[in-house]
Specification:
This protein has 153 residues and is mostly helical. It contains six helices and no strands. It is globular.
């Protein structure tokens, strides 16, 4: 059993690093979401990202469960990041977007934790001007709960 888990982990790592396996486009929503969650979680952990389940919740919400066609996802932008011109940023791959998020978080999250030691990650998103509305936080919380119920690490 340990050998099988190791093999699956090695395949997932190879997929993240080399991008050789992509999800089938005709499988049901939950399968696509689980595929991305597994890949994103491994990458977030390797980059030392704080609160990875909230970050994965953002990716799901921002991309319409990885299915939207007229959003930032078509630019490999899992988190809806916008540039100085207010247009969606473009990334070479979704992996590059995750690295960008990790750097974005590392630049801001320690400052937030220093000023607000008991603050939550949702409060951080508002503080960092990532989320501007309580509705967004409610959606992220709902997705966070869905992940905890339906996805096993």
């Amino acid at each position: 059993m340990k050998k099988i888990k190791f093999l699956l982990l090695a395949i997932t790592f190879t997929t993240i690093v080399y991008g050789r396996i992509e999800p089938k486009r005709n499988i049901k929503k939950d399968s696509v979401v689980i595929y991305y969650l597994d890949s994103i979680k491994l990458m977030l952990d390797s980059l030392g990202v704080e609160e990875p389940v909230y970050v994965m919740s953002q990716a799901i919400w921002e991309t319409g469960w990885f299915k939207c066609k007229n959003c930032a996802w078509k630019n490999n932008n899992m988190f809806g990041f916008r540039g100085k011109n207010a247009k969606y940023m473009h990334f070479k791959s979704w992996r590059d977007c995750v690295v960008y998020y990790a750097n974005w978080q590392k630049k801001r999250y320690p400052k937030f934790k220093e000023k607000h030691p008991g603050g939550t990650y949702l409060q951080f998103l508002k503080w960092a001007h990532y989320s501007e509305s309580e509705t967004y936080n409610k959606h992220i919380t709902w997705v966070y709960e869905w992940i905890n119920k339906n996805w096993k690490t």
